User: Which sequence fits this backbone?
DNA sequence: CGAGACCTTGATGTCAGTCAACTAGTGTGG
DNA sequence: CCACACTAGTTGACTGACATCAAGGTCTCG
């Protein structure tokens, strides 16, 4: 059985749309389907004639490398649109992460036709694409972190932001350690160690394997490294400087070296553009 | 002097548009400006009332971490649109990488108004946003590579793809090693070592610090790791298995372990949604 | 109970970051 | 002109963070 529980219901959503979206103009064309954990939603994203949107639940966009290593290149949360054409040769698959993930499926052609006639639809699609860009940039930013601890920290923050509407500090991880590892480009063991590391520093609490409570959000934010584009703002090192695991008093501690190497917007304008 | 050489000329482009884009509907509103190497194009991307588009030259989107480390989160090549609103708290700056980078600047409101009346404009903006998504996904994919060698390999491939219209195997690196390092999340030294490593394996040639010739593209592609979503396709290890540096016959060599760990589309459906 | 998924912890090896030294090209000023 | 400073790039030695390998623990389900 493929797409086992797929049942087509026309509008059927807009009811579950969980947040601050504009009134939905896309609903009319939707066919929703429910997916089980691990079930494939679309095989070659972008190659299909459909666009998709997560209504509830969570999905992952991934590729499997020749080595057998799976890489998760994106997490799709409620409200996220996916499936639009990708120019590159890369093609990713998407599958559900949590049981009963509900996905709306739109025929691309008809949606685009509708966008051509109704500017509001066009605008909404545009904004969703912008959202995608925004999220991907954040992800790139997270992946660019230097240490595993910071990656995991950033990941928790982002998750809490998107899952709990920004305030509640109790997160239920929707995915396994393996998923997190594949998402952050780490090994499972490292992810596990980082979580216990954060726990030992008193920054988070682990009440059950999947339940995380953020105790010291500020430390987490600092430790996860800045966000600010100005070198001036904020200079503390972050949670890496904190007491560290109380029992084994080894030093973590961020080196925090490397001054902006050069070619910085500064005065040296003429020297710059030579390039051989 | 800010934006030193900025001179406003109305259409002024479409002439330099370098590739396979649809006939340009956006030109009429543009004001173009030329930037020097290292010069800032926009400070808080997304916060401005303008959208930008690289006409010629190259720009980098970056943030500076509290540690002083600069992180490049995107490379903007000719044709790329940037500056659209980002939802997250992250704000990146954009500056020119090569001398004389030409950037078109559009008033956001007027462009959106035009998109509302002209579906072709709306469509074009949409496609540009999709392109952005596509490129960012590729970048995430590259950043997810495990080894530095693979990252650099992927980077070269992507660059050759985008800069030389896909065929020519001679690349002129538009950026310094520092930039590459900050882009790939590596140190300069590692980037340098990787390039010489690839040279010693006979995969590329370095004719001058900024001039790279891809000798064995296939090896580069294999070594940089797969692209395919099916575990079945392709199983060779890539250039890491190759003779390796002829003089120091140490073994690199890809471990290529880790089978898809679990929770794979498999039968365990009921267990999944528990989360505690 | 046993099987299997999921998670954690420990020991060990290795890749890449760090520090340091060196080369080369370029612009500056005595 | 040459000394000097500065930037870009390369290479080597050392070390530390993370992957890997291995073992054990917990929970759920059959």
Assistant:
């Amino acid at each position: 059985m493929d797409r086992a529980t797929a049942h087509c219901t026309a509008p059927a959503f807009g009811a579950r749309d969980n947040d601050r979206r504009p009134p939905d103009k896309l609903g009319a064309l939707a066919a929703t389907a429910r997916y089980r954990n691990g079930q494939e939603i679309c095989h070659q994203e972008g190659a299909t004639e459909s666009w998709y949107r997560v209504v509830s639940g969570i999905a992952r966009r991934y590729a499997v490398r020749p080595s057998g290593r799976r890489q998760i290149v994106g997490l799709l949360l409620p409200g996220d649109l996916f499936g639009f054409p990708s120019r590159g040769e890369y093609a990713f698959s998407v599958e559900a992460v949590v049981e009963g993930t509900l996905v709306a499926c739109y025929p691309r052609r008809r949606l685009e036709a509708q966008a051509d006639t109704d500017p509001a639809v066009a605008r909404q699609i545009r904004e969703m694409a912008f959202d995608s860009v925004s999220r991907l940039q954040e992800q790139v930013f997270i992946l660019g972190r230097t240490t595993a601890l910071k990656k995991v920290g950033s990941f928790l923050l982002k998750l809490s932001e998107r899952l709990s509407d920004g305030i509640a500090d109790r997160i239920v991880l929707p995915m396994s350690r393996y998923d997190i590892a594949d998402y952050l480009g780490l090994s499972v063991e490292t992810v596990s160690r980082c979580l216990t590391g954060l726990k030992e520093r008193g920054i988070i609490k682990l009440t059950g394997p999947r339940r995380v409570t953020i105790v010291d959000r500020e430390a987490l934010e600092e430790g996860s490294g800045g966000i600010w584009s100005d070198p001036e703002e904020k200079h503390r090192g972050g949670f890496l400087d904190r007491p560290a695991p109380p029992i084994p008093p080894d030093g973590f501690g961020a080196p925090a070296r490397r001054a902006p190497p050069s070619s910085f917007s500064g005065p040296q304008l003429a020297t710059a553009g030579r390039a051989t």
